[in-house]
Design a protein that fits this description.
There is one protein chain. The chain is an alpha+beta fold. 55% of the residues lie in helices and 18% in strands. It is built from 10 helices and 8 strands. A 5-stranded mixed barrel has the order 1-2-3-4-5. α7 crosses α8, α8 packs antiparallel against α9 and α8 packs across α10.
Length: 306
């Protein structure tokens, strides 16, 4: 059975309510097991859409003779097949899988686990029966969509309010009040979330500032050690040059960070050498160590600019 309705739904922007005339099909024609759909509080109707080789069913609740609202519930072929299946259908499907598997003469012994497979089949039968029961229960609740909204909804859309307004429903004022409460609740949740994000950002900023302070203290200590002739790592030489504004060639930066293990201001260093390759050219590293030492001789090590 098909019938035309003025259907209310939310536009693609997720907020704007829209209205159009659509020819819908009675859900009982597709799933007879839902019972006397037309005499329910809000009979369910549907329209279909092809999606990657299967069908999607968009459900609508009828609010008056010619007004319906799009539900926040979409079902597919699998959902429909599960609702239509009987206990015998479910048991037959899984038992056939078991029989087909063990009737294969080429089945390797490695894949033969009859007792485990029997338990698996019984578990799947139980789960499918529970799923079918749950699906039918969900549809039954939607057949009284007004009660569903009043008792279980966590949000009331603008399109639903428009639909109830056009249908001249006595529940419109209640639903409007519920939406205001939900809006207030969402605003409070958003405020709390923003406050939590602000606190996390402050804590993260404090943590980074503390890490930076400790790193700068460590670099100051390394600078003092370098000034006194001790060895420091090549990476610390690069960081100190950046701190004091000493320009370092990119190739030299690479050698200091990846090749040099440690170095002192005289150019004495230990470095990594790849087996089978020639000794790396480290002239730039020696020059940089000398420039850094000359700077540190004439400036206090706790300064940060050249």
């Amino acid at each position: 059975m098909k019938k035309k309705f003025w259907c209310h739904y939310i536009g693609n922007d997720g907020n704007t309510p829209k209205r159009r005339s659509i020819e819908l099909t009675n859900l009982a024609d597709l799933v007879p097991v839902i019972g006397d759909n037309e005499n329910c509080a809000t009979p369910l109707w549907y329209e279909t859409e092809d999606s990657y080789g299967s069908k999607l069913y968009y459900l609508y609740a009828q609010l008056s003779d010619n007004v319906a609202t799009l539900l926040r519930k979409t079902i597919n072929d699998i959902y429909v097949e599960m609702m239509l299946a009987t206990d015998e259908d479910i048991e037959k499907e899984h038992h056939e899988w078991y029989e087909q598997k063990y009737s294969d003469p080429n089945l390797h012994d490695y894949y033969k686990h009859p007792e485990e497979d029997k338990e698996y089949v019984e578990q799947r039968i139980k789960e499918d029966k529970e799923s079918r029961k749950r699906y039918l229960s969900e549809i039954a609740r939607l057949q009284d969509y007004t009660t569903y909204l009043l008792t279980s909804a966590k949000w009331i859309t603008k399109s639903e309010l428009r639909a109830y307004e056009e249908a001249q429903s006595p529940f419109l004022s209640t639903l409007q009040s519920m939406r205001k409460q939900f809006e207030t609740q969402r605003e409070e949740e958003n405020r709390q979330r923003r406050e939590e994000e602000r606190k996390r950002a402050e804590e993260e900023a404090k943590r980074k500032a503390e890490e930076e302070r400790k790193e700068q203290e460590r670099l100051t200590q390394e600078a003092e050690k370098f000034k006194n002739g001790e060895h420091i790592s090549g990476s610390d030489v690069v960081d100190l040059c950046r701190r004091y504004g000493i320009n370092v060639h990119l190739r030299t930066v690479h050698n200091l960070q990846q090749v040099i293990y440690d170095i002192n201001h005289d150019g004495h260093c230990r470095y990594y050498r790849t087996k089978g390759k020639r000794r790396p050219v480290l002239d730039g590293c020696y020059k940089t160590a000398e420039e850094l030492y000359e700077y540190l001789k004439n400036h206090p090590t706790n300064t940060s600019e050249k």
